[in-house]
Design a protein that fits this description.
Blueprint lengths: L6 H12 L8 E5 L10 E8 L17 E7 L2 E7 L10 H4 L1 H8 L4 E10 L9 E9 L27 H14 L4 E7 L8 H9 L4 E3 L3 H9 L3 E11 L10 H25 L1
Helix pairs in contact: 1-3, 4-7
Length: about 280
C-alpha cells in the first residue's frame, strides 16, 4: 500500500536520517552565492550531500556546493548549509524552505542567512555588508500557502519582528569591535533569474528597498513561523542605482562577494561565539 506523506512526515524522515550526525547545535547558517569561504573556518565532523538526504532538493546553481555540514565554528557547534535553493530553479516554496523545517526539528534556534544582492540605496558601494532590518516580499508564491500544520507554527504568524533585534544589535557591536563597516536596510525579494530592468530598479527603490535579491525571504518566513530567531546579511555585489547600472555576469557577482567574504566570515564567527 502506498504511504501517504504529509509535509511533517517528510520533515521527520529527513530528520531521522540526519539524527546520527546531530551535534547539539543551536545555530544554523545558510551560505549564499559566492559566500562559501566560511567553510574554511569550520571543524567539520560530517559533510552530507543534499541528494543523500530524504526529500532534500538538490542545488542547481553552479556556485552552490550542495552539502549539509555538521561542524564547530570557533568551538561552537553549528549546522551549515553550503548552498541553498531558489524558486527560480523550479522548486516549490515548500521545497525551497524544507531544510529550514528540518533544522528546526534538529533543535536550531538561531538562523543566520547570507546572500548576494544588488544595491538600490545610492549610499551603498559594491562589496558593502548590509544588515537586513526588514524585507519586502515580491515572490509569486508564499511558503505558508496551503493547509497549516499547527505542529510547525500558527496559521497567521506575526512578521513585525522578522529579523531579530538582539541579533542585529550584536552584529553592530561586533562590527564596531572588529572595525568592519556595516550598513543597514530593507531586502526586496523577487523571483529571478533575470536581473532587474532599469525601471524595476527604480520601482524597488521607490517602494522602500535598499537591496534586491532572489532568496532569504522564504527561509525567513518559515523560520519565523516556527519561532526561530533570524539574522540576515547581504553582500552588495552590484548597483541598481541610476547612472551606475551596468551589465554584470555571475563572475562579477562572485568577484564582489569574494572581496566581502573575509569581513562577513569574521563577523559571523564572532557573533556565533558571543551568542
Amino acid at each position: 500500500m502506498m504511504k501517504f506523506y504529509t509535509m511533517y512526515n517528510t520533515i521527520e524522515e529527513a530528520y531521522s536520517y540526519l539524527k546520527p550526525y546531530l551535534n547539539g547545535a543551536k545555530t544554523g547558517i545558510i551560505l549564499g552565492t559566492g559566500l562559501g569561504a566560511l567553510v574554511q573556518d569550520l571543524e567539520i565532523s560530517h559533510s552530507i550531500t543534499y541528494g543523500d538526504i530524504p526529500h532534500f532538493p538538490v542545488s542547481t546553481v553552479e556556485s552552490h556546493q550542495g552539502r549539509l555540514l555538521f561542524a564547530k565554528l570557533n568551538g561552537v557547534d553549528v549546522v551549515v548549509m553550503q548552498g541553498r535553493f531558489h524558486y527560480y530553479e523550479g522548486y516549490s516554496m515548500q521545497q525551497v524552505t524544507f531544510p529550514v523545517r528540518v533544522m528546526h526539528l534538529m533543535g536550531i534556534k538561531n538562523l543566520f542567512i547570507s546572500n548576494a544582492s544588488g544595491g538600490l540605496n545610492p549610499s551603498f558601494e559594491v562589496s558593502d555588508l548590509m544588515l537586513v532590518t526588514d524585507h519586502i516580499n515580491l515572490l509569486p508564491e508564499h511558503p505558508l500557502r496551503g493547509k497549516n500544520d499547527d505542529r510547525l507554527g500558527p496559521r497567521f504568524p506575526d512578521m513585525s519582528d522578522a529579523y531579530d533585534a538582539n541579533l542585529l544589535e550584536l552584529a553592530k557591536s561586533v562590527g564596531k569591535e572588529l572595525g568592519i563597516k556595516l550598513v543597514e536596510g530593507v531586502y526586496a525579494a523577487v523571483q529571478g533569474p533575470t536581473l532587474e530592468t532599469q525601471a524595476e530598479y527604480k520601482y524597488l527603490r521607490i517602494i522602500g528597498g535598499d537591496t534586491v535579491g532572489m532568496s532569504t525571504v522564504p527561509e525567513n518566513i518559515v523560520a519565523r513561523h516556527m519561532g526561530m530567531k533570524v539574522f540576515a546579511i547581504s553582500v552588495i555585489t552590484d548597483l541598481g542605482v541610476p547612472g551606475l547600472i551596468k551589465k554584470i555576469s555571475l563572475q562579477d557577482v562572485l568577484n564582489a562577494a569574494s572581496i566581502a567574504e573575509p569581513r562577513m566570515t569574521k563577523l559571523i564567527r564572532e557573533m556565533v561565539t558571543k551568542l
